[in-house]
Amino acid sequence: MLVWTLNDGHVPAYASINPVKDGVVQHQKDAVSSKQLLQFSQDLIAPLAKNALKDRKVEITPSTVLLSDPINDLTVWWRPGRPTPQFFDCDELGTIQGVCHMPGLVFAQKGRSLSICAVAGNYRPLNESAVFHAPMFNTGNRGDVCLGGVRLKPIQQWADIDTNETAFLRGINTHPNGNHVKTSYPTGLFALWRDLIGNPQMEWDDAWLTPMKTTLQQWIKGCL
To answer: φ, ψ for residue 85 (rounded to 5)?
Structure first.
């Protein structure tokens, strides 16, 4: 295949598949078709992918992983609700910390950026599961996370998921992001965390979640 373009690179490239006769590239007036280009790409990638798989460590996918999309560098996983250490340092709460109950959460990591939403119940969510705003600090309207000093690892093995999840959840909560209502807790977001940390036996209630008015499948598409 030959790919032609002008030196300035401001015009689309022209590609053609030219036969070779006696070591001489023959003229071909027709541009390569989409079907030919796809076949050429598959022929090129197939042996590379096969060799890469030979060197790759084989790991069984954990049940908490909802989606692994290496083409878009996107990994989505679910964390069942359970008691979790939380740390706060803000004017409204002061410097407080403790282990408190939390809802089920879904994380979407694209590259080294992170988004998060909440789900009701304590079972593996489905495509059509409703999603809710995570009642967390440092998260925007669509669940995009302000990581601050937290540095995520690229997900190259499943253990990296646990590492990144822990790094985020054990980071210091400094301020709520976004202009959305993060919780329907009767006395508001700050009171929610103050009460949860002040009373470790206080169970999480999904009635405190506020809906994003979309499904999990749609939310994940929005993370691409």
So the answer is: -65, 135
